[in-house]
């Protein structure tokens, strides 16, 4: 998790704010962290903002002890959880952490290749030979570019790939991160299928549905696509939930059902009694066919 994150808890009942503030403890590697605790949304949302950012690559533990009481005077059970903060990126070597297509798959012949890295890359070190892709011994890329905030290299073939034939891509150690550290290499290998895929992916299900009212402030967003999509194209810039003058930052984006179902978990509660807009733009399938740009609206519930 980012070092500048806050901690958000959702509770099943309205809580006594004073008791919750005293019962919440946040520790970093066993040492209590100072910060500000806010209890909002009818006493059911607790947000802890540390006085200073967490340290990199540290274990943060969250405790809410049994002195926390509901507004009816019932003590809650002890609760605890933990997470680890992101490491210091200034010393990390760029490494491939995900690819599209995934290694070992059989994919359409019109596939566009994406390689995601763990740190932002230095665009001045990206050349035509930074990544070399071959099929039957022929060098095949025509364009190599940085996308999605400089952490993904996209390779576009200069000619249609041969069907039922292996492809391999290898990253050169001449590539560097913005931190000046050289890449560790890496790459991906896959096999093409019988031909191209030109079917446009669509969104078949959205939850909450368009036009919904009374949506909970802690709602999660679920999208089901008509076919597997490229998970590297799903991020905070291609799926945006906004309303009330804010854009909700996702705490996590996860995939299931062969990358046809996307679950987006907002980090903080939605603003009360507000029309929210979900905008989809820039998501593609494995071959690069783009999902139609769409907008949906729902209305969050009013908290007293």
Helix and strand layout, with pairings?
Layout: E1 7-10, H1 17-23, E2 24-28, E3 31-32, E4 35-40, E5 45-50, E6 59-64, E7 79-84, E8 96-100, E9 106-107, E10 113-117, E11 131-135, E12 138-139, E13 141-147, E14 152-157, E15 166-171, E16 187-192, E17 203-207, E18 212-215, E19 221-225, E20 239-243, E21 246-248, E22 250-256, E23 261-266, E24 275-280, E25 294-300
Parallel strand pairs: 9-16, 18-25
Antiparallel strand pairs: 1-5, 2-3, 2-6, 4-5, 6-7, 8-10, 10-14, 11-12, 11-15, 13-14, 15-16, 17-19, 19-23, 20-21, 20-24, 22-23, 24-25
Question: What is the structure about, briefly put?
Answer:
It is built from one helix and 25 strands. By secondary structure, it is mainly beta. The protein has three domains: about 5-85, Sandwich (Immunoglobulin-like); about 90-190, Sandwich (Immunoglobulin-like), CATH 2.60.40.1220; about 205-300, Sandwich (Immunoglobulin-like).
The main β sheet shows up as: 5 strands, mixed
Shape: globular
Distance between the termini: 31 Å
Could you tell me the strand content as a percent range?
35-45%
- DSSP helix count? 1
Please give the share of residues in helix.
under 10%
- Give, in order, the helices and strands: EHEEEEEEEEEEEEEEEEEEEEEEEE
| CATH fold label of the largest domain | Immunoglobulin-like
- The tally of strands reads 25
SS class: mainly beta
Overall pLDDT metric: 90
Can you list the strand order of the major beta sheet?
Answer: 9-16-15-11-12
Oligomer: single chain
CATH top level label of the largest domain: Mainly Beta
């Amino acid at each position: 998790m980012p070092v500048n994150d806050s901690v958000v808890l959702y509770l099943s009942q309205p809580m006594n704010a004073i008791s919750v503030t005293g019962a919440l403890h946040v520790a970093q590697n066993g040492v209590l962290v100072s910060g500000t605790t806010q209890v909002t949304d009818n006493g059911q949302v607790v947000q802890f903002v540390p006085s200073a950012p967490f340290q990199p690559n540290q274990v943060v533990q969250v405790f809410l002890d049994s002195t926390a009481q509901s507004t009816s005077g019932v003590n809650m059970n002890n609760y605890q959880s933990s997470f680890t903060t992101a490491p210091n990126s200034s010393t990390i070597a760029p490494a491939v952490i995900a690819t599209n297509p995934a290694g070992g798959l059989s994919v359409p012949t019109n596939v566009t290749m994406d390689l995601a890295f763990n740190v932002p890359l230095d665009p001045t070190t990206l050349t035509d030979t930074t990544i070399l892709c071959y099929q039957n011994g022929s060098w095949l890329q025509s364009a190599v570019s940085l996308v999605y905030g400089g952490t993904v290299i996209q390779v576009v073939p200069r000619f249609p790939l041969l069907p039922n034939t292996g492809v391999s891509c290898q990253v050169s150690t001449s590539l560097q991160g913005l931190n000046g550290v050289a890449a560790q290499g890496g790459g991906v290998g896959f096999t093409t299928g019988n031909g191209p895929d030109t079917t446009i992916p669509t969104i078949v299900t959205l939850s909450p549905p368009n036009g919904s009212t009374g949506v909970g402030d802690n709602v999660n967003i679920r999208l089901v696509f008509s076919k597997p999509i490229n998970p590297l194209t799903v991020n905070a810039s291609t799926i945006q939930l906004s309303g009330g003058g804010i854009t909700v930052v996702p705490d996590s984006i996860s995939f299931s059902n062969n990358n046809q179902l996307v679950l987006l978990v907002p980090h903080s509660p939605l603003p009360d009694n507000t029309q929210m807009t979900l905008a989809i733009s820039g998501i593609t399938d494995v071959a690069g066919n783009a999902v139609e740009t769409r907008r949906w609206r729902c209305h969050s519930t009013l908290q007293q």
